[in-house]
Design goal:
- There is one protein chain.
- The protein is 19% helix and 28% strand.
- The protein is of the alpha/beta class and 341 residues long.
- The strands form three sheets. Strands 2-1-17-16-14-3-12-13-15 form a nine-stranded mixed sheet. It has a six-stranded antiparallel β-barrel with strand order 5-6-7-10-9-8. The chain has a two-stranded parallel sheet with strand order 4-11.
- The mean pLDDT is 95.
């Protein structure tokens, strides 16, 4: 298949700039996985589509306030650092703007000296490997200095940093939110549990590669970015028990989906597992674990719309997206949701 097969027209005004309140009042397009039939609901209606004995798998990764602004020591030049990947201790791979200011050995100061860093290396693709220095806990200092790394299509400033976190986030490490989970409230999760639906967690730290466009014409030539994941034993046991009892395993988000399908492919079964995944899911992929998927509306020609097409069927998804545009659904990270069940 060609990348252009996954293109659709999206008016700019449908790109959500701010989250809705309350979280679960967003709209939800529900697709019947077997027939492709569509229903228009709100996210709080998700409980009506879940059965006792099903399980929801959520990604509990928490977003780092990974965008920090500082000045170059000596010249006072303003620079922006975006933390991409933790390497070890206080060493990080970062994206620096403007890059020409961040030569090897350059020193930078943040927050009037709350934190400093030195450029230790430059990668082949231009990222900077930097060593940070600060008093006390690095993440606490980062929380004071950093801003949320909102996607480039969001131009409004976020008033509350927690609105770019899921209510169940706990493992810090993502450069972007696992946005399908942003629709859940604690109250809705409690009602879901009361219905007899089990909830399990995986951790996949979302990298900024998730926003990287597919540049190859032939999608099979695209090279996926790599992200760190962990599937704990407790969640593996829950999934196996659900399957054994005839329940459905429903993934909340493409990140949870990629974690489960990675483990099934790598281990030949669902079990406790940790590692890096660069799995690329596109039409023709054979799903081993998933029975349902809750997700957002994704960018045209992105790896994420390809993944959803693999699960729900290409024609079904392209029709759903056309319908969502016609019905003026809100798109992308702060947008509305879609459930394929």
């Amino acid at each position: 298949m060609k990348t252009s097969d996954f293109y659709y027209e999206l008016p700019e005004e449908l790109i959500a700039q701010t989250p809705v309140e309350p979280r679960d009042s967003s709209r939800m397009l529900v697709m019947n996985k077997q027939t492709g039939e569509l229903e228009h609901k709100h996210f709080y209606n998700i409980i009506d589509y879940l059965n006792e004995g099903d399980c929801l798998i959520l990604n509990d990764s928490r977003v780092l306030p990974a965008r920090i602004y500082g000045v170059k020591e000596g010249t006072g030049a303003n620079v922006e650092f975006l933390l991409l990947r933790h390497i070890e201790s206080k060493r990080w791979e970062t994206l620096v703007k403007p890059g020409k200011k961040a030569k090897l050995g350059a020193h930078f100061i943040f927050g009037d000296g709350l934190m400093r860093c030195t450029v230790a290396d430059i990668t082949d693709d231009g990222s900077r490997i930097v060593d940070f220095e600060c008093e006390g806990n690095f993440y606490e200092v980062l929380d004071k200095l950093g801003q949320m790394p909102l996607p480039p299509y969001i131009h409004e400033k976020l008033k509350d940093k927690e609105r770019y976190q899921t209510v169940y986030s706990r493992e810090t490490g993502s450069a972007a939110a696992p946005t399908a989970g942003l629709h859940f409230t604690k109250e809705l999760l409690a009602k879901i549990k009361e219905k007899g639906v089990k909830i399990g967690f995986v951790t996949l730290h979302v990298g900024l590669g998730t926003f990287r466009p597919v540049k190859a014409d032939d999608i099979t030539k695209h090279h996926m970015h790599s992200e760190h994941y962990e599937l704990p034993r407790e969640t593996a046991d829950l999934i196996n028990e659900t399957k054994k009892n005839g329940g459905r395993v429903i993934s909340v988000g493409t990140t949870s989906c990629r974690t489960l399908e990675t483990v099934a492919k790598k281990e030949g079964k669902i079990c406790a597992s940790e590692g890096w995944t660069d799995i690329f899911i596109y039409p023709g992929f054979k799903f081993e674990v998933l029975d349902g998927l809750i997700t957002n509306f994704h960018l045209p020609e992105s790896t994420l719309i390809m993944l959803v097409s693999a699960f729900a069927g290409y024609d079904n998804i392209m029709n759903a997206y056309k319908t969502a545009v016609e019905e003026k659904y809100r798109f992308f990270s702060f947008g509305d949701s879609m459930a394929v069940l």
